[in-house]
Specification:
Blueprint lengths: L1 H28 L8 H12 L37 H4 L1 H16 L5 H13 L4 H16 L6 H16 L17 E6 L6 H14 L4 E6 L4 H14 L2 E3 L7 H14 L4 E6 L7 H14 L5 E10 L5 H13 L3 E5 L9 H9 L3 E5 L7 E3 L2 H8 L4
Parallel strand pairs: 1-4, 1-5, 2-3, 2-4, 5-6, 6-7
Antiparallel strand pairs: 7-8
This protein binds guanosine-5'-triphosphate and magnesium ion (MG).
């Protein structure tokens, strides 16, 4: 009987030992609980979704959990490559205003009184202005009288040369100073409502980015929220950084902040938008004077103040230029919408009467439709159909 007890005890011992060993093996090969990884995954998502533009501070990273979770810089948009539009192709309307008169003049056998009347009317209609028209014609009359010019063809060629000559010699280079690091160039855009300031900033940004400059846009038009959004879309399109303030806020401080941000990030160029305003509104012009002053107070240097003028406005553009020039020390004019205007002659009035160079010309609504003003090409385009 005793041996039966001994056998039973042995069986129980062997079974117990087996259970202990098997249990240990299971606990060694079990996978870690999913909860152990959760914090690492969360920190990654946070870093990846944080926009570099929206935060001042560097996003926090937890190297001991996920050393590879470095914040990835937003890939900068590649500068767009676009074809430069030609004056000749875009100035159909401006040319049309002159072509009819020129063809009438060429159709006559000689230079007669009606020739001078036609010329005068055409130049005034093209917005060349009373003073410049009178000067151009009196010079030509003297040459005809002296028999230096004897036929209508020669007269028109002489007019073309005179017009080109009047625009020669102006310094149209865009002022960009290669300065100390952290001291961006600031280009300010001013003008009356709807002339094309914001659109021009978008086009200028694209051009400057394609030339290798880094650009920040400051939404100094705090008058309407939509204005900042319009500028933000151009910033995204051109791969520029963007700073805005609150609606109704002080435009000077938005632009000042933009300049400081650009300086901190070693950005080369700040393009500052402003709200459109009538040159006759004294308080708004005073606000602009302050914007101009404050823009140069911080780390940046205001190297250009562009007055944007809509070519379809005609002679009123001259009055605008005078007022804005007095208030903000305008350094150059951007003449927009020349593609849709028969009044390109305003270029002559602005340059001759005010001495402000036309530096850029808008030839359409798309990002590539901005060109450096080239007087030869411009005047040739006006005379192209004769
Ligand atoms: N055809 C043509 N249209 C242009 C040109 N430049 C601007 N525009 C158009 O003009 C309109 C007004 O342009 P904006 O850039 O909003 O003008 P703005 O001066 O910023 O206007 P405010 O901010 O309201 O003062 C838009 O429809 C532009 O597409 C140009 O060179 N040619
Ligand atoms: Mg605007």
């Amino acid at each position: 009987m005793e041996w039966i007890y001994l056998v039973l005890i042995a069986v129980v011992l062997v079974f117990g030992l087996g259970v202990v060993v098997f249990g240990r093996r299971r606990s060694v090969s079990a996978p870690p609980s999913p909860a152990a990884l959760t914090p690492a995954r969360e920190s990654r998502v946070e870093v990846a979704t944080e926009s570099a533009l929206q935060t001042e501070a560097e996003p926090e990273v937890q190297p001991e959990v996920q050393p590879e979770a470095e914040p990835e810089a937003e890939p900068e948009a590649e500068p767009e490559v676009f074809e430069r539009p030609s004056f000749r192709a875009k100035l159909g309307k401006a040319r049309g205003a002159l072509t009819g008169a020129f063809l009438g003049i060429r159709g006559r056998a000689g230079i007669v009184d009606a020739t001078w009347d036609d010329l005068e009317e055409a130049l005034l209609r093209a917005d060349v202005g009373v003073r410049v028209t009178a000067e151009l014609l009196s010079g030509l009359r003297l040459r005809v009288k002296a028999k230096a010019i004897t036929d209508p063809d020669a007269l028109l060629h002489a007019l073309q040369a005179e017009m080109t000559g009047r625009l020669a010699g102006a310094d149209r280079a865009l002022r960009f100073e290669q300065g100390a690091v952290g001291s961006p160039n600031v280009w300010l855009f001013v003008g009356v409502n709807g002339v094309g300031k914001t659109t021009t900033i978008g086009k200028v940004a694209a051009l400057q980015r394609s030339q290798g400059h880094s650009v920040l846009m400051a939404a100094g038009d705090t008058f309407r929220a939509a204005a900042a959004e319009q500028l933000a879309a151009w910033a995204e399109r051109s791969g520029s950084e963007f700073v805005r303030g609150s609606e109704g806020g002080d435009p000077s401080s938005v632009i000042f902040d933009g300049v400081q941000r650009a300086a901190a990030r070693n950005i080369d160029l700040v393009l500052a938008d402003t709200a459109g305003r009538l040159h006759t509104k004294t308080n708004l012009m005073e606000e602009l004077r302050k914007v101009r002053r404050v823009a140069g107070k911080g780390a940046g240097r205001v190297t250009e103040v562009f007055l944007v003028i809509d070519a379809t406005t005609g002679q009123n553009g001259l009055i605008q230029a005078r007022q804005f020039g007095d208030t903000t020390d305008v350094t150059g004019v951007v003449l927009t919408k020349l593609d849709g205007s028969a009044k390109g002659g305003i270029v002559f009035a602005i340059e001759t009467e005010l001495g402000i160079p036309v530096k850029l010309v808008g030839l359409g609504e798309t990002i590539g439709d901005l060109v450096a003003f080239d007087p030869d090409e411009f005047v040739s385009a006006l005379f192209a159909d004769i």
